[in-house]
Amino acid sequence: MRKIYLLFAMVFFMAGNVCSQNETSASDALNFKIDYEKFTLDNGLEVILHEDHSDPIVAVATMMHVGSNREKPGKTGFAHFFEHMSFNDSENVPVGANRKMIPEWGGSRNGGTWSDGTVYYEVVPKDAFEKILWIDSDRFGYMINTVTEAALEREKQVVKNEKRERVDNAPYGYTDEIIRKNLYPEGHPYNWTVIGQLPDLQSATLEDVKEFYNKYYGAANASLVIAGDIDIQETKELVKKWFGEIPSGPEVKALEPMPVKLNKTKSLYFEDNFAKLPELRMVYPTVEDYHKDMYALRILGQLLSGSKKSPLYQTVVEEGKLAPDIGTYQSSSELAGEFIFRVRANANTDLDSVKLAIEKGLERFEKNGVSEKELKRIKAELETQLYQGVSTVLNKAFQLVQDNEFKGDPGYLGTTAKLTNAVTAEDVMRVYNKYIKGNNFVMTSVVPKGETELAVEGSEKAEVWIEEVKNDVASEEVSQGEEAEYEKTPSKYDRSEPEFGDLPLFRSPEIWTAELKNGMEVYGITNNEIPLVEFEISIPGGQMLDPDGKAGVASLLGDLMMQGTAKRTPAELEEAIGLLGARINMYSSNEDFRITGTCLSKNFNETMKLVQEIILEPRWDKAEYERLKKALETNLKGQEANPRAIASKVFYKLLYGPQHSFGIPGSGTLETSEAISMEDLKAYYAKLSPENASFHIAGSIEKERVEKVLGDLAEKWEQEAPGLQKDEIAALGEPGTLYFVDVPDAKQSVILIGKLVLSEKNEDANKLVFANEILGGGSSGKLFQTLRIEKGYTYGAYSGVSENLEVSPFYITTSVRANATLSSLEIIEEMVENYAEDFGPEEVKLTQDKLLKENTRAFESLSAKLGILRDMSKYDKSEDFIEDMQEELMNMDEEDFKEVIRKYLGEDEMIYVVVGDKATQFEEVKKLGKPVIELDIHAEKIIEDSKE
Fold first, then answer.
1. Are strands 279-285 and 442-448 parallel, antiparallel or unpaired?
2. Looking at the predicted structure, is the pLDDT value of residue 267 above 90?
3. Quick one: DSSP state of residue 126?
4. Could you write out the three-class secondary structure of 722-761?
5. Which CATH class is domain 36-255?
6. Residue 899: which residues within 8 A CB-CB, separation 6 or more?
7. d(Cα 281, Cα 284) in Å, to the nearest integer?
8. Helix (H) or strand (E) holding 883
9. What is the average pLDDT value for the chain, to the nearest integer?
10. Which CATH number is 266-397+410-461's, of 3.30.830.10, 3.40.50.720, 1.20.1740.10, 1.10.150.130?
11. What angle, rounded to 10 degrees, do the helices at 372-389 and 570-579 form?
């Protein structure tokens, strides 16, 4: 289920924030708005245009005011299914072009359905702007005549695979269904899930599709937003041409809010085949989106559990030691809302104890009330979130189209900011007393299979329909089928494909550099579009410096160093960061230890003071260390039931061997984490050196200011860098061998295929990335087009090359329906075997055009700009390395591509990992003809008991 949560950031500004001259004032932040122009076509389509020339790209978002709330029992999942159908064919666009051509133009595209609406969106280089209007309008107004029975059946399989991947094969995947069935009465539009039930989906007919389209897909039931590098007047004329003839459609009457009230509390339990940890949720019915109480309820969620000072964090996590975390939040939809308590507890934890701890925390909240300082913290954090929420043209488009379609005002963001800013402590207590205290709720206890004793006492068994795995692939085989026969809808315009506009080429941003006296290099990009900065300190080492047998030290150290300083308790540090509206984090990757941050540019000085304090004055809090170790154990235990996590763990252990740091997950294993001590963390901390480190920063800030702020850190942080010893690769996996891991009753098989190829510093690194694009570089790749579009076996299939200093793998990844495991493996095997031979002049041109154009939008965000700086510092790349890559790509000919493919992508050199249901698939995969070895979830061989 592709579900878009268009709950955009609400912002407030508090007078207590630090503010220097010539920077954003309180009134500027509170009155923030996105400039736009709105008009309505004769057919009722409301159009919002936003002009932004910062990058040569355009975002288009079409929002239909129809979601699963318009469905009927027995026809559930139809709005989402129709979204899928819309991406197939249309009258004036070639078959399959929607999913294939847009990526080939250098763009990205997708859609999303939720309870109340459906959105279709694209981001493309400026030269493809009119092409997007052509393809988008044709999908909107001219697709229904092209729908065939074959297309219907093919897309059913895709959606069924999506449900299997995201619901049936995922821990806690059924919880949403249980809650909806019990929170909302039969007949209420929220009684069923967005993705619906598979039997309902299977029974959908061609007549159903046409009826749904004709009823809800009129122009008057939609909003269209275009944001980016456009000319307003020219765009108006283009919109009238491409969208003006779409029929208005019948009137779709607005649904009035339908809040619910429970006459009793309902407690249910469910044994989850994939869960390793017990989870408790408590869901209270509240108010719909845009209701005046929604804003106070959202703040209530933050106050109850959003910090170390919050009462539920204290009672559940710190005092009870029952879980690594707790979440409370308000979720509002068009017709009703929910306030949710969610705790994924430690292994073997009785959920009755979790419930009691929540009740204790609520009593504490009632007694102590709302802290004004906590309100200030939340408001400061939301100010930063506002700018992050509109930092790209696509995010701006989403904000404008959401508020227009559901509130009738594209500029409602400013009103939202003011309404939230006006929330008082009294408002928060009022909504708590009105919607939470003493009210009935739905409670779910989802427990691992066979551990029903962990469920809340008195819970009733939840009823869930679960698909039976059948090893009958033929019954679900689909094909492209015949194209529909129809007469084209007449138009006064030529609706054939328009030409490209002028090609916009990527130009590297201006990059400045500096070096601090302690040896740390500084790389920066100044970008003044929004008053934000993102930064990071990258220190070589990362997981590679973990002691032998103690994988996870670097990762755990990153967590612990954020738990206070010598001067501040964990709660005081969290509060200090929050009051600046900043975010600071530490984590370890394969080869680097990183300190990252985001803040308003006006607060950079104060934020860096906290970063310096964190780095130079660690607290070494024993209680936090014990809590984090327990949380790590809980998280690692949870991963043992996730088929994707299992596949990844096994794959990398087979490629690198158990002694190489890359062969073990960065967070370690249950065994290695148990061996870690506080002294191990202190020893690793002593190796954190600025000598070979790099500081990267992008945003609204100048070089001089950055150097000045970092000067004090450079004076006080001096440490000789440790030597980095390269691990020896001792692969366990045999080329050409298939390794199978059993997850009983899995509805899908996770497939990971690959081999070690090269380091990012290898002269062929770029060439291999280029050569992979046709195979699996997105929805236009052969893997996706064959396994999903043609066969309907999967929701997605991709391939890629990992980027590290160490020799890294090429990989192919997908999750296919269980009974299509063998067929999928055969297709992938043949595709890789023939890839070099099949790569011709057409593939060369397609690769060059696609990747060249992708660069126009690939570096729009601040985080993407940080990525440029990281590549420069880590891999010794030049300031204009992206332009160099473009030149390298354009100089490659057909034989260059073939040579790279033959050199690195030999199918017989790859290992195959399949994680799925042994009872139905183990004998099947043997038919592939490769040696098959069964492993457990830790990549250890399973030896069958011998029988005499």
1. antiparallel
2. yes
3. G
4. CCCCCCCCCCCCCCCCEEEEECCCCCEEEEEEEEEEECCC
5. alpha beta
6. none
7. 10
8. helix 881-890
9. 91
10. 3.30.830.10
11. 50
- Cα–Cα distance for residue pair 562/564, rounded to 1 Å: 6
> What whole-number distance in Å separates Cα of residue 422 and Cα of residue 473?
59
- Match 């500027």 to its residue by tokens: 28
Q: How far is CA 815 from CA 751, 826, 918, in A?
A: 6, 14, 15
For residue 793, what are the CA distances in angstroms to 95, 155, 250, 266, 828?
Answer: 19, 10, 36, 38, 12
* pTM for the full predicted model: 0.87
Token pair of 272, please? 């989850």
Same fold for the pair 266-397+410-461 and 512-716:
yes
The span from the CA of 105 to the CA of 941, in Å, is 46
Residue 863: burial class (beta carbons within 10 Å; 0-12, 13-18, 19+): middle
The encoded tokens of residue 680 equal 């191990």
Give burial (CB, 10 Å; 0-12/13-18/19+) of 468: exposed
User: Which is it for strands 738-742 and 932-935: parallel, antiparallel or unpaired?
Assistant: parallel
Q: Which two tokens stand for residue 847?
A: 């690769």
521-545: pLDDT as tens digits? 999 999 998 899 999 999 999 999 9
Please give the Cα distance from 781 to 532 (Å, whole number). 36
Please say whether the beta carbons of 122 and 109 come within 8 A.
Answer: yes
CA-wise closest residue to 750 among 830, 838, 677, 815: 815
Q: Which two tokens stand for residue 833?
A: 């075997």
The SS3 call for residue 439 is coil
- For residue 579 the two structure tokens come to 């009051």
Could you tell me the CA-to-CA distances from 152 to 88, 478, 783, 795 in Å, in that order?
10, 10, 21, 15
Kindly state the percentage of the chain with pLDDT values over 90.
77
Show the tokens assigned to 337: 């809302």
The secondary structure of residue 941, as a DSSP letter, is: B
Q: Which residues contact 312 (CB under 8 A, 6 or more apart)?
A: 304, 305, 326, 328, 341, 357, 358, 361, 362, 365
| Single-letter amino acid, residue 218 | G
H or E element at residue 446:
strand 442-448
Neighbour order of strands in the sheet with 694-699? 512-515, 521-526, 694-699, 532-540, 592-600, 583-588
Q: What is the DSSP string of 617-664?
A: SB---HHHHHHHHHHHHHHHHHHTT-HHHHHHHHHHHHHH-TTSGGGS
Mapped onto helix, strand or coil, the DSSP state of residue 443 is strand
pLDDT digits (tens, 9 = 90+) for 633-658: 998 988 888 899 999 999 999 999 99
Q: Nearest Cα to 935, choosing from 748, 664, 738?
A: 738
Instruction: Name the 3-class secondary structure at 486.
Output: coil
Count CB-CB contacts under 10 A for residue 269: 22
Name the strand (E) or helix (H) holding 376: helix 372-389
Q: Phi, psi at residue 887, to the nearest 5°? A: -65, -40
Strand partners, 331: 338
Per CATH, domain 512-716 is 2.40.70.10: no
Domain edges within the chain? 36-255, 266-397+410-461, 512-716, 738-935
CA dihedral (836, 840, 845, 846) positive or negative: negative
CA dist 529 and 820 (Å) reads: 49
**How many Cα atoms occupy the beta-carbon half-sphere of 350 within 13 Å?**
8
Q: SS3 for 119?
A: strand
Residue 3 has pLDDT above 60, yes or no: no
Kindly report the CATH number that applies to the domain delimited by 738-935: 3.30.830.10
pLDDT tens for 416-446 read: 888 888 999 999 999 999 999 999 999 999 9
pLDDT of residue 466: 82
Dist. CA 679–CA 689, nearest whole Å: 18
Amino acid at 188: H
